[in-house]
Amino acid sequence: MSNIASVAQTTTRYSEVPNLSISIDGVPIAYRELGPRKGVPIIFLNHWGAVLDNFDPRIVDALARDHRVIAIDYRGIGGSGGEAPLTVAEMADDTIKLIRAMGFDTVDLIGFSLGGFVAQDLALKVPGLVRKLILAGTGPAGGKGIDRVGRVSWPLILKGLLTLRDPKTYLFFTSTRNGREAAKAFLNRLKERKTDRDKGPTPTAFLRQLKAITAWGRQAPQDLGALRIPVLIANGDNDIMVPTANCRDMAKRIEDAELVIYPDAGHGGIFQNHSEFTRTALTFLAASRRDHHTGEQAL
């Protein structure tokens, strides 16, 4: 384990770091780690059906130059054992246990899509554990259209199969020229890792996570005003999976939240604009509380 840890510490590319595992309640949870072993670590929480190879290496690598970054597989997904939870709350509980098992008293969280649901629930459950929160392509409990993610996604997943394209082409990006070029570039980045790739999600795990997403969309709203930490919210202006209006709603309900909306971008707006997003995220993570700029930015 010490040899693996030293490799994770010195390797600078996400596509090259080893697959690691930690036991939570007797269940192995897979993760990858890179960046300097100092300061507050960043925990990455990803989207529906995502495994370790679905984290954008450009974003991870950029943040890992200055921060310790840990990307995880949820229980029942990819290299993690056990059965995929049926609720966002269970995923948040698993993540809390993982953070504590790793010995961290404070973390920063970046949650994309489903990961943003988990990040919100976690931050509300354990005040003081999360120092700063970044929410991308996501929405609040009970948010507009979240319980329709499956109905929106299935036709586009089928379209991907019929056109021999990754469904994320249609789910994450706009149909404009910029969107299509960004989709191609993003999907190529996800193929950069050539060895020791993660296992894809099983159909059962994929469907169980969809049930958790649907339940999140139907549950009672949470008190986002209770989040007394710096929060950065980012999305594209045309998110068809988790409608962009949800990000504006969260920004209104969270005191001093910073909101960034990318033009001509969809659910994967942070991937399409990865350079701009990482610059914004690094500035946000480095700033003192009084330095934060609030309100919406349209880039």
The largest sheet has its strands arranged as 1-2-4-3-5-6-7-8-9
Provide the low-confidence segments as ranges.
1-10
Compute the number of structural domains.
Answer: 1
Element pattern in H and E: HEEEHEHEHEHHHHEHEHHE
What share of the residues does DSSP label as strand, in percent?
A: 15-25%
Radius of gyration: 18 Å
For the secondary structure, the number of strands is 9
Mean pLDDT: 93
CATH fold-level assignment: Rossmann fold
**Going by CATH, what is the homologous superfamily?**
Alpha/Beta hydrolase fold, catalytic domain
How far apart lie the N and C ends? Answer: 43 Å
CATH architecture: 3-Layer(aba) Sandwich
Apparent shape: globular
Structure overview:
It is a single chain. Helix 2 (57-64) packs parallel to helix 11 (274-286) and helix 3 (88-101) crosses helix 4 (114-125). This protein is globular. It has a nine-stranded mixed β-sheet with strand order 1-2-4-3-5-6-7-8-9, sandwiched between helices. The chain is an alpha/beta fold and 299 residues long. Helices cover 39% and strands 16% of the residues. The chain has a single domain (2-298), classed as Alpha/Beta hydrolase fold, catalytic domain (Rossmann fold). Residues 1-10 have low confidence and may be disordered. The longest helix has 16 residues, at 203-218. It contains eleven helices and nine strands. Helix 9 (245-253) links the parallel strand 7 and strand 8.
Q: What key attributes describe this structure?
A:
9 strands, alpha/beta, Rossmann fold, 299 residues, single chain, 39% helix
